[in-house]
Amino acid sequence: MELWFTENHTDNVKFSIKIEKQLVSEKSQYQQIDIFETKEFGKVFALDGYIMLTEKDEFIYHEMITHVPMAVHPDVKKVLVIGAGDGGTIRELTRYDSIEYIDMVEIDAKVVEVCKEYLPSTACKLDDPRVHIHYQDGLRFVRTKENEYDLIIVDSTDPFGPGEGLFTKEFYGNCFKALKEDGILINQHESPFYGNDAKAAKQTHKKIASVFPISLVYQFHMPTYPSGHWLFGFASKKYHPLKDIRYDEWNALGIKTKYYNTSLHAGAFAVPNYVIEILNS
Q: Considering 34, 155, 158, 197, which one is annotated as catalytic?
């Protein structure tokens, strides 16, 4: 008998992956956690029926959420990561010796526990001594911070369920306050392609742009996410992602990546006309 995992991308579109076996099926206090073994994508990690990552393509997401701001900001030492229980963003951040301290805020301890056991390829640096994990709500955590972080990365789920509070104007305002005067905010920005996702992307961009003087989106290709066309948001008090990128300095670090490079960095901000129209409408 063939087994398939199917995610509903819209009411009329489904995405399916053939699975060999299910490794995890647990209901935490916050959400349903599943991990599957597949031939095509390796292990697949899902929350509430939505794919969070696969071993085959996770490097795209985690490199683009991390290295874009690190190539722009010249002196990141303290970072706040909200979400990211799978550990992939932390793994990429710990490749920078210049980073001294990372606060990671994850609401669901069970996610971290499961990923450490079944996804060591992404969770391999969660025990780095620079990483300090806080199991609590990210919205409440950031409210208590002021002028503290050089970089905030919001590696959240979609704007419903446990991640809903991370898509509000109040939250982005608190991130602004928590950042230093030259700080950068990166957030998961949804997809511009399907109707409901595009609406969420537009609303998120509008809220961030009302708080930060510099606010842009950049794109990347994610095979297992709805439509494959996905966005991150880049917001800053000071740095522009194209005018202030440090090409030579970043390349001199010698960080080996599979997706990100400084040429792609510039191109990622050249989004299609339909995306511009959605964000500006």
A: 155
